[in-house]
Every structure is written in structure tokens, then in C-alpha cells.
Amino acid sequence: MALDTSTLDRLPAGVTGPIYDRSKLTPGIVHIGLGNFHRAHQAWYLHRLMQQGKALDWAIIGAGVRPGDAAMRDRLLAQDCLTTLIELDPAGTSAEVTGAMIDFLPVEPDNAALIAAMSDPAIRIVALTVTEGGYYRDTAGALDTAHPDIRHDAEHPDRPRTAFGAMVAALRARRAAGIGPFTGQCCDNLQHNGAVLRRTVVGLARLSDPELAEWIEAEASFPNAMVDCIVPATGESELALARSLGLDDMAPVTHENFRQWVIEDDFCAGRPPWEDVGATLTDDVTDYETMKIRVLNAGHQVLANLGELLGVPTIAACMTDPLIAAFFRRVETEEIVPYIQPVPDRTPAEYLDLIEGRFRNPEIRDTTRRVAFDGSSRHPGFILPILRDALAAGGSVQGLALTEALWARMCAGTREDGSTIAPNDPNWDALTAAAQAARDRPESWLEQAHLYGPLAQDAAFRQAFSGWLARLWSDGTRATVQAYIDG
């Protein structure tokens, strides 16, 4: 049956739905970037609160700033912003319809509707999931003020094209009206993600209105957070799965049977009581986010480039391949886990065991292609910080260097069997050119200064990387990885 408000009272057997009256919900959050992860994570936590009769004045208004977001808007509005979440557990599949989102703003070039919504004093949190590479950072982590989008927003602050320019415009309107700022809440997989969002918003404001920038810096909040749930992309099989449950949902979301959200408790305009549904509120998320980003997100990159080269379609399938699983385990144990601190109730080794179990879940068809996407953001964000720590400590970097060499080999655009790897990065053409040049001179890959910076000059890393990449081309992927495992 079609999914919309009129059918909530007759959902198929086994599918749960909202028990709260959605007509009584009022907005408190604008969320920019209505992809699968947000709907399986932050929106789910809010839905669980509403199921308890709480946070009814914190409903979500969705938003997007890219033309492609308009298609998601159409799909969600057609079903009254309801989403079917399907939990994929080897023990059995379960489903629920969530209703914490109540509207989706028009997607406009000048973001006028988005600015107006965020200017409303009822909106107390503006949250984002815009991918790790969406924050306009330069190689030093600062705002890239030379980027054309940032220059545009600085020169045309009343007609911004980025989410951050729209946030600045709304904060300007709130300040002019005597309204306090909202909290900016980053839900992307970035180390110190709140601080990254703060730098982007304040830095952009400073380019056009230094006094506004000082007000945002002093009055607004940007809490750091660690977010975690494996959420595959939605394709035909996921749509078919929803239909098999009796629901014609045009944007269903599948997810694993695990969620974690650790949030710095710093909200300038209030927040929902997320701790009542399992979130962890803390004064410092650093150790939590370091553990998760290094073991899970960096681990994904250890797996995905190798899996893509060998034609292994999913992360779960990678974990059943003895060679790939052994490579993952050795790199994690010897070169990642040593640079992680324990958190309450969990050691890094215990967390690695947890992640291995989650990655092996055969019901989660998380493709190697999805995980390998945008390596030009994910390798600098997830792998290279560990490399720097390992080099500073005098530790081995052989596995991490091989991980980077596998990425370079993958970016050459062909698998081990000669089949073509379709473009899978916003900078694919440049990466492919660098990868092809590195076939004859491996060091040339490291000369991409925007990626590696001073790391390219480190003799230990440079030598290890060059040796592994040359061997990948001469001996092949499996033989090279086996040599690392045996070494």
C-alpha cells in the first residue's frame, strides 16, 4: 500500500508506526542533507523520543542546497515525510515507519526558503549531514576562502549558494531581530565535527560581516559529536524489500542493528532529551570519535579499495575473503589500535572486535563502491592522521602505506581482472591522471600536495608507499597483500 498519513492506522502486520499525533508536532530542527544516514540516525532518535510523548516541539524540517536534493524532496513530500526504516539483522528483519520529519523546504538557488526557516525563533538547532568533504576546508583544515562557492557567498551574502552561507544569512537576520542564535549541529563523520562546522560558519561570516562573526563566535554553539550506524544506499533491492513488507515507500532506508551517538552537551538554545533514548551526553567526545573514526571509518578505507580492485562487491563479502580479512585485522591491530585511547566500558581491542562483527553482517549489502566513494576526502580525513601519529611515534606504517598504494592503484581505473572502475570521486579525473603517472614513478602520487602535504616528504612513508605501489603493478594485488600479511 502507499505510505502516507492516511495509511498509518493500517500498516502491514509486523510494521510499527508513530503512536504520537503528528498533527500536533511543531518544528524545532532544520536538517540540511536528508540522506539515508540522517533518517536512520538523528531522526530515529527523535522519533523514539516522540514515541514516549517527549520532544513534540522538536520536529524536523528537511532542507537541501543541491539541485539533486529536489528529487528527494518530491519523494518524501509525496509520502508526508514518512520513512520506513528496515533493520537488517541475521536473526531477522524488522521495520518501522518514523514520522519525526514534518516538512521539506523548497530547494532554491538563493536558499531563500531555507534562510527564512532558520530565521524563525522556533528553530533552535540547525543540523547537517553533507558528507565529510562538504565543509570547504583547505589542506590545513581552515576555510578554503578561494573556493568559488565561498567567494560567491562572501560577495553575495543575501543570495548564498552553500548551506553555510544560508546559516550565516539566517544568523544575521536573527541578530537583527534580537533573537538568539541556533545551535549548529554537525552529524558528519569528522574529527571534532562541531569545531569544523564552527570554523566554516564563523570564517564565512567574517568575510562579509566581521561583527556578525564575533557574535556567532561568542553566542552560538557547535557541539562535537560522534555518530555511528552503517546505512547502505537505497537501490532497487531496498525498494523491493519495502514492497515485500507491504509498503510502497519511495525512499526506504535499510540499516544495521547498531546505533551510537555521543554528543557534547553544549546547546545554546536547548535540545531534546536524547539521553532518554540511548544517546550519550558528555563534556568531551574526543576519545569516542577517535575510536570510531579510526577503527570503523579508516577501517572501511582499508577494506574498500582492496575489495574494489579484487571485484568483491560488499563489505560483508570482503570480511569473508581470507586475504582481505587478514589484511584488515593486521593493519587495524598493529597500526591503528595502538593510537587509540579506551572509552568508558570499552577498550580499543574490544571495539575492533565489535566492528569486525558489524562488518561481517551478511544482511547489510554495503557496497565497496559506496564505501570507497570520495577517497580524496576520506583518506585525508581518516587514514592520514593515523599515519602522522604512527610516524611521530616511530611505529610501523607498512600497512597504512599499502592502504594508500591500494587507493592509488584503484584510482588508475581498472580492477585486477581488467574491468573498468567507473568514476567514484568528485576529483576522479585528476586522481586517475596522478595514478597513471604513478605507475612509472610512484612518488608522483604523493606529490598531490592538497592531499598529502608534508607527509610526502617523510622518507619512511615515501619509501614504503613507493615500494608497495610498484609491487602492486608488477606482482598483482593478491600477491602484494599476501606479502604484507606474511611479512
TrEMBL record:
Gene3D superfamilies, alphabetized? N-(1-d-carboxylethyl)-l-norvaline Dehydrogenase, domain 2, NAD(P)-binding Rossmann-like Domain
- Domain Mannitol dehydrogenase C-terminal positions: 284-468
Specify whether Signal is a keyword of the entry: no
Q: Which Pfam families match?
A: Mannitol_dh, Mannitol_dh_C
The record ties this protein, via InterPro entries, to: 6-PGluconate_DH-like_C_sf (IPR008927), 6PGD_dom2 (IPR013328), Mannitol_DH (IPR000669), Mannitol_DH/Oxidoreductase (IPR050988), Mannitol_DH_C (IPR013118), Mannitol_DH_N (IPR013131), NAD(P)-bd_dom_sf (IPR036291)
Keywords in alphabetical order? Oxidoreductase
Q: Mannitol dehydrogenase N-terminal domain location, by residue? A: 28-275
User: What is the top-level taxon of the source organism?
Assistant: Bacteria
Q: Which GO terms describe its molecular function?
A: oxidoreductase activity, acting on the CH-OH group of donors, NAD or NADP as acceptor
Question: Under which name does UniProt file this protein?
Answer: Mannitol 2-dehydrogenase
Organism annotation: Jannaschia faecimaris
